[in-house]
Amino acid sequence: MNAKRRASITALASAVIAACIVQMPAAAQAPEGESRAGRTGWGDPDLQGVYTFSTQTPLERPEALGDKATYTPEELAALERAAAEQRASDEISAAPGELGAAYNTYWTTGEKGRLLARTSLIVDPPNGRLPPLTERAQRHLEDRAAALAARQVGEPPFVYDLFDTWLDHPTYTRCVSRPMPRIGQQYNHGLQILQSPGYVVIYYESMHDTRIIPLDGRAHLDPSVHQWNGDSRGHWEGDTLVVDWRNFTDKQEYRALGLPQGESRFIERLTKVDADTVRYEVTVEDPANWTQPWTFVSLWRGDDPNYQHPVDLYEFGCHEGNYRMMENTLNGSRALREQYAESE
Amino acid sequence: MRTWLRRKTIPGGLGALIAALLLTSGPAAAQSTDYRAPRLPGTDQPDLNGIWQAVNSANWDIRPHAASPGAFPNLLGAIGAVPPGQGVIVGNELPYQPWAAEKQRENFENRLTRPVTRALNETTGDPEAKCFLPGVPRVTYLPYPFQIVHTASQVFIAYEFASAARIIHMDSEPASPAESWMGWSIGRWEGDTLVVEVTDQVDRTWFDRAGNFHSNAMRVTERYTPVSPYHLQYEARIEDPTVFTRPFTISMPLYRRMEPDAQLMEFKCIEFAEPFLYEHLLDASGN
Known about the structure:
The structure holds 2 protein chains of 2 kinds.
Chain A: H1 2-21, E1 38-39, E2 45-46, E3 49-52, H2 73-93, H3 99-108, E4 122-124, H4 135-150, E5 152-153, E6 160-161, E7 190-196, E8 199-204, E9 209-214, E10 231-237, E11 240-246, E12 265-274, E13 277-285, E14 294-301, H5 323-343
Antiparallel strand pairs in A: 1-2, 3-7, 4-14, 5-6, 7-8, 8-9, 10-11, 11-12, 12-13, 13-14
Chain B: H1 2-7, H2 12-23, H3 27-31, E1 50-53, H4 73-76, H5 98-109, H6 118-123, H7 138-141, E2 146-150, E3 155-159, E4 165-169, E5 184-190, E6 193-199, E7 219-228, E8 231-239, E9 248-256, H8 270-278
Parallel strand pairs in B: 4-5
Antiparallel strand pairs in B: 1-2, 1-9, 2-3, 3-4, 5-6, 6-7, 7-8, 8-9
């Protein structure tokens, strides 16, 4: 619990540092959806650039905040100050003898995106919380928890998740995929938008995934075809790119929620609201998992010093170096099973 | 043929051009046409946007080769057989140093050896079987389509195989930060030809399933030239003094995928490679 709290405060701290260096973007205050996009050579609104999609703002509003949708500037400043102090003390405690914390600090500081003034990314429902799950989704989560419990050994505080097959690892650890849409991510959260006549392309550094979005009004892939990253079709509404995104596979799961995406449909709306910022709005329609649609809004920032054209998107070679991890976790799991079987 | 052309009153100049094309062959002839590709709007560059694919058997063997049965005829029948090919190497010969010619034969013999340790995983067998990023130039002639995304300031290539992708830096020449599987690409225009210099590739990728290989000293100079609305001529000059006695060039047409609504689909092959890579790890004996 203590470790968990510290991790989340460390996360806040990195946001504060970034916010101190870079002025809060005008976009955060600008009327939502007002476009500042230039034009491509063929007349489309120009969204191109290298951005980071990550933010410290949580998907759901903390329950204790009730109806409070935004922080006052004073509250935001106080949060940032507290987090900065915590970060300074974390850096000291992560020095000699605390390898675990130092390792985590290496991955998680300074690169996690800034806080928005809003208390949650979710803007609808108005309480900033995910709508109630369907019965089917609740059953799925129960089955999933039972499956996990079945491959755990030990007693708190030393409970180990065992991996009896490579399929017991999350798809991220297997280097297969990350959930879509991408919202918060601790590292490698850069992306690039490119445009050519008739297409908008989103290239995500993590997993070197490319979404090529046709704008010519063609039909989606046949509904029998399911893909990890779905199938995208776009059109312009004024200066906003609207993308209808579907055809996901059930093997793909919502971030941190553990729910299958096979019947999900997303409506994305991308608007360039200032020279460095794309407003990213997504409505999730997924009657298999939620009893009503929900919508979140985030900002893709082009002014993150870690993600600048031309060199800050680099090859995400993951699977190519994953063999030792798989060897060790499978061997280690077998050894732990034997050890616990003997002690019983 | 010429009579038919005259009867249809095709302009004489076009008839002569077609006749000239029929009488000559090879990439040099293809590039000597007067074809001028449409421009990318807002630029004076030829528009290379499109979905392209090689149609040849270079991924099995870039050298001239007869058909052969493949590794598991008892399991796969004719499905696993190797299609024949005239080869894509200009002059047909791969100028290996003697040790490297021997190494290629070893590679081929071990191409489907199951990796049993981390070290062997990195050094043994065909990286295509493991769904590793395939490197340049092999990624171009794998039997999967790729899409060139040509913007006003950049060229980006997305490949269906393994979700591989390359950023080709056109507006600057940033230094490569490190070796990588797909290398570091710096592009420029020579007339209507996109020229890309690819350096800093790891030494783990191969040219084909026959075990033809290179070192991390390889420098690849690619040339993409539009020669009709429907195809590009592709050339890649390979310089690798660690492995070869002299540079050599491969050459092939790349064809535009003409299906209405053609698009890249997903071939995220890691999940197809995992049983091959990891199944033996489930067994305590490690076999």
